[in-house]
């Protein structure tokens, strides 16, 4: 297999996987609010859901998406509405104040969220364009390699953001600033809303 598609993927994937976005911000918020152990199903939903989305986009769904840009706009507004709702719920968050019926996102919910996540769509289409359509090798072979690459990177980036959320919660508790946790997380969520709509 030509090394150029692999290099193109790594150059694009490392910054996008590790930068703030819907998945990473939600993992950070969940790590802060529920802890690492309870956030693992959420992480696994992303780790499985996003590579599956990349594979489906590579099989041709990305072309449908390009033909109907209205779909992109609808998904953008859905994701923005979801994040605005999350920001609102995080405003009242206080450390140690998780209500009994509150829970982190489940595996299937996190996997399905990828389909309305604008950053996930942008990444999937970019990766497929960079790796699959720019190379001469077998499309299915490259698409499979791309999917496995996404599957390999997801646990590392997601875990980093979960740990960051947990450490932020601990830092705020130690410094007596725990009442600001909800405000910080809500602010980050609203920043994501603004970025969705730009």
Automatic annotation (TrEMBL):
GO biological process: cysteine export across plasma membrane
InterPro entries linked to this entry: LeuE-type
Any one Pfam family match given in the protein's UniProt record, by short name: LysE
Keyword Lyase: no
Bilayer topology annotation: Multi-pass membrane protein
GO MF terms, alphabetically ordered: amino acid transmembrane transporter activity
Keyword Nuclease: no
Swiss-Prot/TrEMBL keywords: Cell membrane, Membrane, Transmembrane, Transmembrane helix
Subcellular location per the Swiss-Prot or TrEMBL entry: Cell membrane
Main localization of the protein described in the UniProt heading: membrane
GO cellular component assignments: plasma membrane
PANTHER family: ARGININE EXPORTER PROTEIN ARGO, ARGININE EXPORTER PROTEIN ARGO-RELATED
Annotated protein name in UniProt: Lysine transporter LysE
